[in-house]
Every structure is written in C-alpha cells, then in structure tokens.
Amino acid sequence: MDLRSWLGFLESQNRVVIHEGPWDLTHMVASRLTEYDGQKTVIFRDGDRVLVGNTFNSRSELAQSIGAQDAKVLHSRYRDALAQPLVPYQSNAEDAPVLTVRESSVRLDSLPAPLHHARDSGAYITASIAISRDPDTGIQNWSIHRLQINDAQTLGILILPRHLAIMVAKAEQRDEDLPVALVVGLPPGYLLASQAITPYGVDEATIASSLLGSPIAVVPSPLYGIEVPAESEYLLEGRIIAHARDLEGPFGEFPRTYGSRSPRPVVKIDAIYHRESPIFQTILPASREHLLLGAIPREVAILNAMSQVSPNVEDVILTLASGCRYHAVAQITPRHAGEAKNAMLAAFAGVNEVKRVIVVDSDINIHDPEDVEWAVATRVQPDRDIVVVSGALGSALDPSATPDGVTSKWAIDATIPVGVDKARFEKITVPSNNVVGD
Ligand SMILES: Cc1cc2nc3c(=O)[nH]c(=O)nc-3n(C[C@H](O)[C@H](O)[C@H](O)COP(=O)(O)O)c2cc1C
Ligand SMILES: [Mn+2]
C-alpha cells in the first residue's frame, strides 16, 4: 500500500474533499485542513502539483490503514508489531518509484510546504520521516521532526532528546555531519511506525513491516546509502551539519501553543528525488492526524507499564484535549486497596509526557469525557484519592513546565474503593421497554 492507493481507497469511500486549482500556501491550506479536521481528507490539486493533508481522521481510519477492521484492535496490533519486527525487503533502484525523477537543483522554497499557524516563523515540512544511521552500528532510525524552510537549501530542525539526538551527538563528537534522508508522502501505517517507543537501536522500518503485515520495500538513497521506503513520494537527501545552529520557530505545536524560537540544528539538503507527478503531504500541527499518531504508541507503552503492576488494566486513552500526550484515562479492575495508585504511578513511568492520569472502573466509558467526569464527581474524595508528584520529567512543550520539561504530575483514583458496598455507586438506568408503540 502506498499513499496513492490509500487516497484512492478514501475517495472510493467518499471521505475526501478535493480542492481544484491554485492554492495559497499562506494559511489557506491550513485553514481548509482545520475546517475538515477529524472529518475529511483534503487533496489540493493544481495540474500536476498535488498536496494532501488529514490523510486519516479517526482511530478507525487509522486502523483501516493497517488492514484492521476496528479501532479496538489498534493497541494489540501495535503491540504485536513491536514484539515481532520484520526485516524490510530490498528493492532495486530501477524499481523504486521515489527515485524516478532527480531535481536538477535543490529548491526547497519551491516545495508546496504550507505556512500553518498565525505566529509560525515560516513554511514548514511537517510530514517527513527523518531516517538516519547510527555512526557506530549503522542501525537506522525513523522519526518525524518539524522542519523550517530556512532558504533554498537548508532546513531548521527540532530534535527532542530521543534517538536522532543520540546520533547527532555521536556525529558531532567526531566533528562529522550526520547524513539524513527525509521522506515525504507515505500512507498512515509508515508514519505510525515512526512513532514507536522502543529502546535505542530498533529500526522502525522493521516495525512498519510488521505493522503493515509484510516487508516494506526499501532502496538505498543514492548519495548516502540510507535505506528509504521505495514507495515514498519525495526523498530529500542531506546532512545534519556538525555543530551548526540557527534560529528555528516559533511554531504552533500539538498542545495548541507555540514552541519557542531558539538556536537549533541545521539540515543541508544535497539532492531531491520524487515520483512522477509527486504528492506532497503536510500534517496540520495539533490536528487529529498529528495527535493520534502520537497517541497509539504511547497508549500501548502506558498499558504495558500499568499491566506490570495491575493485571486487570483493560484500556487506556490519551485525551484529545490534552494533545493526546498529557492526560491519560485508564480503565482497570483493582483487586487490592492501593493497587489503583500503583498502576497510576506506573503510567507516569511508562511515558514521560503523561501529566495527569485518571483511573476508572470498567463500567465507565473512557472515550466519553462526561462519563469520566461523572466517575470523578461520584467516586473521588480529593484528600484520599489524589496523588501529586513534584519535580518530575514531563514535556518541554508544556508551557506550564520549566523549559526543560520539569513538571508536577497528578493522579486521580476514581475507582470505587475495594471492599465497599458497590450498590451506592451504581449508575441509574432505565430498563428497556419492549412494548412497541401503536
Ligand atoms: C507530526 C509530528 C511532528 C513531530 N515533530 C517532532 C519534532 O519536531 N521534534 C521531535 O523531536 N519530535 C517530533 N515528533 C515526535 C517524534 O517523531 C516521535 O517521538 C518519535 O517516535 C521519536 O523517534 P525515536 O524514538 O526514534 O527517537 C513529531 C511527531 C509527529 C507525529
Ligand atoms: Mn527510534
């Protein structure tokens, strides 16, 4: 499955809005994507030039994109993909669609990269997977990074302290540039695989392969030999320049606030390749698409961590209002007094960004914020059921945390205490009336 076939499927299901004719990259594209966020994929078509956003709009569409029928199996499918990685398939350069055309010169400013939010510093590439190799082991890593177009050949990049940051530090220690391949235009499963939470040294290409159900085709990038998905629409090959820093940001981010303007690493692009009539992809920051890509791997990590201390963790979600990062709601059936508290602390250990976790019983619908609030209203005694942890590591993009992301965290146990009479807590219902009216 490539981006084209996924878009074709969405069109056949009437889930696409097509904008024909010239588009304006200054806020017009972002405003159409905002209008249809959570509802429709938007394709902007101007002759040969094509731009797409909102490539999925819900958990169920994301599930469909990896061949699953139901959003309910997203977590188990993701967990299985992490447990059973699959080695990609090596394709020939001649068969790789992404290598069809090499641009005669590098003109990043001619890519259809939109200016998204009001105070953004400029046009950004937001839907590229950055692929780099560890300078010692050669093992590759995939991650998505916001990329500010500085000029025709360079990009500013935000690299939070995860795997790519380790590679950059290793290269800079040797005063060497770090080769990087930026691929744009892939179906949701690839992007979801890039968000995997794994130990350093796991190649996310192996997770994409298992998540999609068969080895993905990869091809060495012509200049630096980085293995890239052959089905990509665009490939930008370049280097993260050793020790170079330039101002990047501000940029509207997933918490619906702006990330700061600061000196950040610089990518020099050396060559651009693409398919015939390539489709450029953008992810509107803070859109459903952006938030859900991060949600699934984090929910799986929280589920795993909580399950270590409580065997009856049924389900976890990260709420949309918290950017699918900061607020978790977990459904558990505690067997022992205090077990729910241990499980909540495990959620913090599972994912750094989680700032508040609420645990509820299995009769509460964690996808319904009103039902969760009902549980908090009727089952919580604040002096007994709230735990506050000070000075923990959270998200640097949370404006209320320190610039390094140090934050306090809170956990709310909204489960019915073990051993009390549950009848007092039972939700009222109206019995179904089977009499059919005349
Ligand atoms: C649309 C989107 C944009 C993102 N932008 C950034 C970014 O600018 N910088 C960053 O460090 N992580 C960003 N991320 C998160 C990383 O891609 C993600 O945490 C990834 O799993 C990190 O990979 P790693 O574990 O191999 O380091 C973004 C994620 C998405 C979905
Ligand atoms: Mn990684």
Description:
There is one protein chain. With 438 residues, the protein is an alpha+beta fold. The protein has 2 domains: 3-277, Electron Transport, Fmn-binding Protein, Chain A (Pnp Oxidase, Chain A), CATH 2.30.110.10; 289-419, UbiD C-terminal domain-like (3-Layer(aba) Sandwich). Helix content is 25%, strand content 28%. It contains 11 helices and 23 strands. It has helices at 3-12, 28-35, 59-65, 74-83, 163-173, 188-194, 204-212, 288-309, 339-350, 369-379, 382-385; strands at residues 16-20, 41-46, 49-53, 89-90, 101-102, 124-125, 128-133, 140-144, 147-149, 154-157, 178-184, 217-220, 227-229, 234-248, 251-252, 258-259, 262-274, 279-281, 313-318, 327-332, 356-360, 386-393, 406-413. Strand 19 and strand 20 form a beta hairpin. It starts with a helix and ends in a 25-residue tail after the last strand. The structure holds flavin mononucleotide and manganese (II) ion (MN).
Summed up:
Helix content is 25%, strand content 28%. The N and C termini lie far apart (52 Å).
* Second rung of CATH, namely the architecture of the largest domain: Roll
List low-pLDDT spans.
none
At the fourth level of CATH, the homologous superfamily of the largest domain is: Electron Transport, Fmn-binding Protein, Chain A
The chain-level mean pLDDT equals 97
Please name the CATH topology of the largest domain: Pnp Oxidase, Chain A
Radius of gyration: 23 Å
Helix content estimate: 25-40%
The class by helix and strand makeup works out as alpha+beta
Shape summary: globular
Number of strands: 23
